[in-house]
Design a protein that fits this description.
about 50% helix; rod-shaped; 2 domains; single chain; Tetrahydropterin Synthase, Chain A; four-stranded antiparallel sheet; alpha+beta
Length: about 190
């Protein structure tokens, strides 16, 4: 009889195990809800910080847009006028919005580029420095209709380097959305 008195009645054991399972499930559910709420709040704070001036990763790693221009054939400024260049140019732009703006000014930009190239000689354009100078000049011509100045320092900035006391610090310039000028072809004959 002693074995029978020490054991609990058969109906009581399953009720205790069901209560433990329900309590465990409720605790697990509360932990999951608390974790989800914590992640939500952390993401909300990060988003608020990004809007206040921080950059998002997408903006920091922005993929450029490339805009190819039609090939151009230009007479060069060599004596005799019998030398010419065929140049293919692709513009590296900040984004698609800039591409749309540049397309609106494309006839003016092509004209400016043709004028720039026609002022060069074959000897200038055969050297790397000549091509780099031409690319910098083209970059300034493409950025000009968009409201950006060229990259050359102004005279007052040169004086500031020499210790001119009248120099006043100016606000930082906006950076041009036209990043680079790339030559896709460059033939001189």
């Amino acid at each position: 009889m002693s074995a029978n008195t020490s054991a609990a009645p058969p109906g009581k054991e399953p009720a205790k195990s069901k209560k433990l399972i329900v309590i465990g499930a409720v605790v697990a559910l509360l932990v999951i809800v608390a974790a989800a709420l914590g992640l939500f709040l952390v993401n909300k704070q990060r988003h608020a910080a990004d809007e206040d001036g921080g950059e998002t990763k997408a903006a920091a790693v922005q993929v450029p847009t490339f805009l190819p221009m039609e090939n151009m054939v230009v007479n060069l400024a060599d004596a005799g006028g019998d030398r010419f260049a065929q140049i293919g140019i692709t513009l590296e732009l900040q984004d698609e919005k800039t591409s749309t703006a540049v397309k609106q000014y494309m006839p003016s930009i092509r004209n400016s580029v043709l004028m720039l190239v026609s002022q060069r000689t074959a000897d200038e354009l055969l050297r790397r420095e000549g091509k780099e100078k031409l690319a910098a000049d083209i970059l300034a011509e493409v950025a000009r209709p968009l409201g950006f100045k060229g990259t050359a320092p102004r005279a007052s900035e040169d004086r500031a380097d020499e210790g001119d006391d009248e120099y006043e610090e100016r606000p930082r310039r906006r950076t041009s959305p036209v990043r680079r000028v790339l030559f896709s072809s460059f033939i001189i004959q």
